[in-house]
Amino acid sequence: MAACRSSVMTAHVYISTSIFLLCLSAADGRLNTGHAGVLLVERRGSYPLIDLRILKTSAQHGEVEAGRRKVKRQLSFQRYCHASRLLRGSVPHTPGSLHLLDDDYLGQAAHMLSKVGTWNFDIFLFDRLTNGHSLVTLMCHLFNVYGLVHHFQLDMVKLHRFLGMVQEDYHSQNPYHNAVHAADVTQAMYCYLKEPKLAEQLSPLDVFLGLMAAAAHDVDHPGVNQPFLIKTRHHLASLYQNTSVLESHHWRSTVGMLRESRLLSHLPADVSQDMEQRLGSLILATDISRQNEFLSTFREHLDNQDLDLQLASHRHFILQIALKCADVCNPCRVWEMSRQWSERVCEEFYRQGDLERKFDMEISPLCNQQADSVPAIQTGFISYIVEPLFEEWHRFTEPSPLSRTMMGHLHKNKARWSRLRHAHTPSDTQTHSQAEDDICFKVSEKGRN
Question: Where are the alpha helices (DSSP H) in 34-115?
Fold first, then answer.
């Protein structure tokens, strides 16, 4: 009991410190803004948001023209700064803009952090209790749990600055690909890193990279998929030659923020560059078009029983699989949370479909709200993507109590979505089958991020 109270008190103090350092980082950014015209206070998106107001169609060529926003390259990566709201006088004064948490909320958030390793952790509640700072608060707590700050001799102000940049670079208006999703994936990754089969073999570097990749794996996601960027001839599609476009951008943006924050500047150049490359390898593994590639390799290792977690390369591969699992683990959560995530991701799909319809573009698979129902999309997603991956993870863990719990939720949720699917009118049945075919196509033909 005393240990539990001590843990909660420690988390309480840590959250308070986290908020203070966020204030310090924000204030530091505003001071820098005034020097030499460097605009660092604004959200560091790499390109203007995909917005109806900045899109125009060409009657002759059917192309989408670029918006009028002025953009600026930074750090040799394709990361742009929007025009400064500070100079327009539209930034709220601090500290009011940070909405500091009161003691009651701090206490509840600290209590939740003491149970962050449980699978029924409610990330939506935690995000409310931290007033939208779930990703920063969670990452700082986990770095503290693993002693990563001490091990890598990290500067706390630089760490908070970096995490704040990552959190801000997620688009809060996205129903799904936002900072709460990143926090949810990070919490799941932490649960996987604690698996007995894996935990004893991991090095501090493995843990550092696993948590960092989880937190940043979708940073600056525009809320549309790769085919949309390709058919609108977005500059990122050209830059990455229509291959792993979004994943490459998430990685490059993360490296840019690491360098801008100078989080790893105290390490030898070859060490920090190696960490950046490994981070990229993890983030690029989340490309759903590579699902079959990773799944077949994973299955082959398990069939041959030749995984040796004392080898750094094999540990890295398992971290890739763990991140892929964490990224799509929503159907393995309890129904109440799983349903929320399902509705959010479908809402994001539908928004893209509405945008494509408005500009007379072909509507992408799964993005037609009139044709693709949530139950149909989720049934196909579970059948073709989630279930095959988690069945192999279940084998890998031999199986663990956590894996048994996840598979139990997965089967129950799949059955529930199936019942909801068949509750629709008979005329919908063909549409549902098409939704499943679209998901299968998505995996085999590099369809979606």
Answer: 103-113
327 is in an annotated binding site: yes
Q: Of the listed 177, 221, 250, 301, which one is catalytic?
A: 177
Q: What is the DSSP string of 394-443?
A: HHHHSS-HHHHHHHHHHHHHHHHHHHHHHTS-GGGHHHHHHHHHHHHHHH
pLDDT in tens, 161-215: 999 999 999 999 999 999 999 999 999 999 999 999 999 999 999 999 999 999 9
Residues 156, 279, 340, 352: what is their CA dihedral angle, to the nearest 10 degrees?
A: 120
Q: 149: exposed, middle or buried (C-beta count within 10 Å: 0-12, 13-18, 19+)?
A: middle
Residue 133 labeled ligand binder: no
pLDDT in tens, 52-66: 444 433 333 433 333
Q: Which residues on adjacent β-strands are paired with residue 57?
A: 64
Could you write out the three-class secondary structure of 222-271? CCCCHHHHHHCCCHHHHHCCCCCHHHHHHHHHHHHHHHHHCCCCCCCHHH
Q: Where are the beta strands (DSSP E) in 279-426?
A: none
Question: Is position 314 annotated as part of the catalytic site?
Answer: no
- Residue 181 assigned as binding residue: yes
Distance CA 243, CA 233 (A): 13
Provide the whole-model pTM: 0.80
**Structure tokens belonging to residue 353:** 């479909």
79 membership: H or E segment, kind and range = strand 77-80
